Amino acid sequence: MKYISQWITLILAGIVIAGVYFYVTHAMQAQKNRIQTPRPAAPEQAIELSTLTTTTGSYAATITASGLVKPRYSLTMTSQVSGEVIRLSSQFESGQVIKKGHVLGQLQNSELNSSVASAKNTLAAAELAFKEEMRQGEQAKAEWQAAGFTGEPDSDLVLRAPQLAAAKSEVEAAKAALENARTKLAYTKVVAPFDALIIARNVSPGSYLSAGSEIGTLYSTDRAEIQLDLSNSDWLKLPNSSILLENWPVLISSIDTSETWQGKVLSINQHIDETTRMRSLTISLENPLQHTPPLIPGAFVEVSIQGKRLDNLWRLPNTALSQKSEIWYVDENSRLAAFETTPWFVDSKYVYIQVPDTMRNKTYEVLAQPYNSYLKGTLVKPLNTSGQTNKSVQP
């Protein structure tokens, strides 16, 4: 009995140990399975970003450049002859506007008066000699015929043809000398060659002037001109020859005030300046001093020229262009995408972007203010802040 009882105890202990072993092993396996089983993925959260709705359109660039207002003609008048200033016009003062032909001053030169009188005398004598030679020629011809000679004489001296030609040349030379003397005498009267603004007067009554002495400085008043140097990128935004044929309008604005004038494109230079490596065009304004307010010579102005219309552009706020020159948008899967670009042109509010071919004529949500931390492919919930679609209109 004693051995049976020990075996039963041993068997029961073995059963208990086996049960504990299997229990512990099962628990450890279950725990291991729980650790290795992945948790279900959490749903991806879309980030909310401010966007604006945009589509391609046609827009015209505005080319802006600065320049100096200059007159059509700038003339420093000089004396053509010598003489004493005996009279000056009351309008020959700085700031006065005069008409073409206005007599600004009068010089006195007795030698010129004497030259005119002498030239008249020489001309009278030459005309008298010419008439006498004509009469002698007629008499020689009559004598030749009265002598019964036929044909022409062996020498034209017989009928005095060379003498007559010489006398005629003397008359013509005397007339030219008289005209020259009268022209020089006329130069003693200082006359404005065009409608002008007096810039400076360099003489006074009693001044003695030599030929070539400065009298004053005049600016023409019929037209103001502004030359603008434009880069090659600016020229690409302008129309071709139509800019001249259509009197292409431009807006001239004062740098210092809010005053504006409506001018036009006058001419285009067909060469590149060797120093600046730029081409220039000239803007004009007719009768600048008659405008209200007047556009005065020497003013520094800003000129705005409307360019040609360009297609397939996005017009976006300036903030839409990132620091890396990228445009960020939401693709068809509501995920962030971007492309690098260089603005075709800009103004005070907008950048105008050339759209990739695959994105033309489609509507996109564009980020209003992207940051460098954004990642492509991020799920996005657009929050439209534009208020309206950016349609194809000219700004």
UniProtKB/TrEMBL annotation:
Key words, A-Z: Coiled coil, Membrane, Transmembrane, Transmembrane helix
Coiled coil start-end: 109-136
Bilayer-spanning residue ranges: 6-24
Domain of life of the native organism: Bacteria
Similarity-based family: Belongs to the membrane fusion protein (MFP) (TC 8.A.1) family.
Name of the protein this chain belongs to: Efflux RND transporter periplasmic adaptor subunit
Species in which this protein is naturally found: Marinomonas rhodophyticola
